[in-house]
Amino acid sequence: LRAGGSGERLGGATPKQFCAVQGRPLVSYTVRAMERVSWISDIIVVVSPENVGTMKSIIEKYGHQRVTVVKGGITRHRSIFNGLKVFAESELPNHLLQKPEVVIIHDAVRPFVEEDILSKVVMAAKEYGVAGAIRPLVSTVIASAADGCLDHSLERARYRASEMPQAFSFDIIYKAYQQCTDYDLDYGTECLHLALKYCETNAKLVEGPADLWKVTYKRDLYAAESIIKGMCSSLWLSVCIFLSLINSLVCCSF
Known about the structure:
Layout: E1 20-21, E2 24-25, H1 26-35, E3 43-47, H2 52-62, E4 67-71, H3 76-88, E5 102-105, H4 115-128, E6 130-136, E7 142-144, E8 150-153, E9 160-169, H5 170-179, H6 182-187, H7 191-199, E10 204-207, H8 218-253
Parallel strand pairs: 3-4, 6-10
Antiparallel strand pairs: 1-2, 5-9, 6-9, 7-8
């Protein structure tokens, strides 16, 4: 889980992954979503060095299991690379985790990921080596010329939005990062492209559900809070209905 962003687009002093949603940090919901998947053996959360203590406190407070906190780098790719090193290099004193066959890369600010899409990208990665979730483009993508005028537009039907989660054969993605140039590490954003560029492995694209969206702006936080509040209300309603049924059965037994 990459959780090293500064939240610049969100505004405010608190990085978005640590913003409270219904009284709980956003990253905690994403960790919990991963914990619910029994076949995920380890959860690596990569945070900026100054937030390591904050993340460890969250893990302790909410009782998260199977979680290791790793210091991130100054860019997205450098942070992901640091997370991968935990399985291959002695980055943590006396604690080298067992190398997985497949590794999932996901954003800490995408809390609504479900086991179904995780399973689909992992199974595709086992078959193809690399896989990633995609969604249809909502808006047409255009390119501007140097003078600020329209240069050209893309045919929307041919393109897709790259989303998370993505899954990789560990050996493929780790080799790709080892061979990366500094330019890729500092300016790149797409992990699937690295696997293609450095390992000649073309990703299998998996159509994902609508709830893979990323909390980026303040309005997204409000939307996330509304969804989580609705989920909690539905759970409470289910409990009430279940308890009512139990009471009815007890009454009938008399």
